[in-house]
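JOB MANIFEST
job_type = single_chain_structure
chain_count = 1
residues = 70
[input]
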Amino acid sequence: MREIARLRKLYGHGRRHKRRVYLALPDTTALKHGQVCVIDESGEDYLYPKSLFLPITVPASLRKAILQAA
């Protein structure tokens, strides 16, 4: 299941924006290495340090809307 995460720190140069909400894909191998797989605005997924993102909990109706829009 896709997770929802918020970027809490800026990292390098790219199109990620602080405090923006991103979808995170489940990737146990990445997590073992301290990474999280995040889908950016282009629809591509990339690995980033887990410390840059904060998992968030949203109401079920909002979660459904976010996942449908993705």
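[summary]
The domain at 3-69 is CATH 2.30.30 (SH3 type barrels.).
Residues 6 and 21 are 4 Å apart (CA to CA).
exit_status = 0
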